[in-house]
Amino acid sequence: VKDALTAVRLLHGQQRMFRAVSGKRKDGKGAHEAVLWARQVSGDGLYLKKHRVVVRNMPFDATEADVREAFGDFMLWEVTLPRGVDGSARGFAFVGFVCRQDAERAIEKVNGTEIRGRAV
């Protein structure tokens, strides 16, 4: 299991070239670039929505990139910055993690740190 999780960590978010298995692409080229999204498919990896953290006191001008930078040491599944009906930020974010251990360590590391000058 440790080896599998290590492999997931190494592959997740990597940009790789892939070659089409059957036939050519419409543009005539046989390879294309894609970003890998890897996750554990047993144990904690089965429960993607289970390991979500609410980040409160977010600056209203924060972007997804700001949140991803703050949580950069961890494998993120998703980042959501809810908006009101008028399109304005609501001041919090949901951050989903691939595994429970990452979620717990991220809480310890990011809690009280600043994103765009505001402690979260």
Task: Give a verbal description of the structure.
This protein is 23% helix and 25% strand. The strands form 3 sheets. The protein has a 3-stranded antiparallel beta sheet. The protein has a two-stranded antiparallel sheet with strand order 1-2. With 120 residues, the protein is α+β, with helices and mostly antiparallel strands.
Helical content band: 10-25%
Overall SS class: alpha+beta
Query: Main sheet: which strands, in order across?
Result: 3-5-4
End-to-end separation: 33 Å
User: Tally the helices: what do you get?
Assistant: 3
Can you tell me the residue ranges where pLDDT is under 50 for at least 5 consecutive residues? Answer: none
What is the mean pLDDT? 79
Count of individual beta strands: 7
* Biggest pleated sheet: 3 strands, antiparallel
> What percentage of the residues does DSSP assign to strands (E)?
25-35%
> How would the global form be characterised?
globular
